[in-house]
Amino acid sequence: MGEAGDWQRLCALLDDDESVWEAVEAALQDGEDPWDALIGGLDDAGALAYLQADDTGMELSDALAQLPRVFALQPDLDEVTDTDDLVAATAAADRILSAAGLRIVRLVEEEDAWPVAVVAASGVAEIVRLAHGTGHQVIEGG
């Protein structure tokens, strides 16, 4: 797969909304940063919870509940709200969602930014590999 093909596959694994790929494709054609376009496209599609590193489990729980895959599942995220540590809260949410075949992935951006998406567990390894191949980092489980 070429660069555009890798980006297209990455978009598809992160969310099935075609507008995400369209934003990335436009960025590639215009010489803009496709990673920024990916994050913006996911956010526009409602598939991204954008937090800051100093946010709490309560804020993570509230943000995750708005994502379509989590909303459809309606999981009990009480355990996530029990901590003020975002790393621990993200790990707890990932454990809860993994029981339903979903995982949390964090798209590494700025140092204090914490953009996360909920994806099919079966696609996580490929998401991490494709992101790395584009020069970016995705952390599974947040």
Task: Give an overview in words.
With 142 residues, the protein is of the alpha+beta class. The chain has helices at 3-14, 18-30, 34-44, 57-65, 68-73, 86-98, 124-133; strands spanning 49-52, 102-107, 113-120, 138-140. It is globular and about 45 Å long. The mean pLDDT is 95.
What are the SSEs and their pairings?
Layout: H1 3-14, H2 18-30, H3 34-44, E1 49-52, H4 57-65, H5 68-73, H6 86-98, E2 102-107, E3 113-120, H7 124-133, E4 138-140
Helix pairs in contact: 1-2, 1-7, 2-3, 4-6
Provide a brief overview of the structure.
The chain is an alpha+beta fold and 142 residues long. Helices cover 52% and strands 15% of the residues. It is globular.
Name the descriptors.
142 residues; alpha+beta; four-stranded antiparallel β-sheet
Number of strands: 4
Trace the largest sheet across and list its strands.
1-3-2-4
Q: How many angstroms does the end-to-end distance come to?
A: 27 Å
The succession of helices and strands, N to C, reads HHHEHHHEEHE
Query: Helical percent range?
Result: 40-55%
- Hey, roughly how much beta strand do the residues contain? 5-15%
Task: Note the quaternary state here.
Answer: single chain
**Shape label:** globular
Radius of gyration: 14 Å
> What class would the helix/strand composition place it in?
alpha+beta
